[in-house]
Amino acid sequence: MLTKLYIKTYGCQMNEYDSDKMADVLHACVGMVQTDKPEEADIMLFNTCSIREKAEEKVFSDLGRARALKQANPNLLIGVGGCVASQEGEAIVKRAPYVDVVFGPQTLHRLPQLIAARRASGRPQVDISFPEIEKFDHVPVSQTSHGTAFVSIMEGCSKYCTFCVVPYTRGEEVSRPFADVMREVESLAAQGVGEITLLGQNVNAYQGETEDGDTVDFAFLVQAVAALPGVQRLRYTTSHPREMSQRLIDLYATTPKLAAHLHLPVQSGSDRVLMAMKRGYTALEYKSIVRKLRAARPGISISSDFIVGFPGETEADFEATMRLIDEVGFDASFSFIFSPRPGTPAAEMADDTSEETKQARLSRLKARLQELDQQISETMWGSVQRVLVENISRKNAQELAGRTENNRVVNFAGSPGMLGRYVDVRILPGSAHTLRGELVMQP
Ligand code: SAM
Ligand code: F3S
Question: How far apart are CA 233 and CA 323, in angstroms?
Answer without folding.
Answer: 33
